[in-house]
Design brief:
By secondary structure, the chain is an alpha+beta fold. 21% of the residues lie in helices and 34% in strands. It has a three-stranded antiparallel beta sheet. β1 and β2 form a beta hairpin. It is elongated. The N and C termini lie far apart (68 Å). The mean pLDDT is 86.
């Protein structure tokens, strides 16, 4: 039996909000689903961790790194610049 944690951030009404989840898992029991033990949602990261029942600073810093990861993307135009498609009726 061990704990696993999940964290993500989402903007709600213009305010960044943290979602923290704490699960109890049983790796020695194959096929047994994880049990959610705690959940915290708050605009303050530390308060969200407290609501989820997480007090360990090491776990909090690990979750903070997970939340602060910036995912970069690339915008690809659907139509290359300088080209046009004539419309025929």
């Amino acid at each position: 039996m061990e704990h696993i944690y999940s964290a993500h951030q989402k903007e709600i009404n213009g305010v960044p909000t943290y979602f923290i989840k704490k699960f109890l898992t049983f790796p020695e029991q194959p096929g047994m689903p994880d049990i959610r033990e705690g959940f915290g949602m708050h605009s303050n990261f530390d308060m969200a961790c407290t609501l989820a029942g997480i007090d360990c600073n090491r776990i909090k810093s690990s979750l903070r790194e997970q939340v602060d990861v910036v995912v970069e993307g690339k915008v690809i135009p659907l139509q290359p610049e300088g080209r046009s498609i004539p419309m025929i009726r």
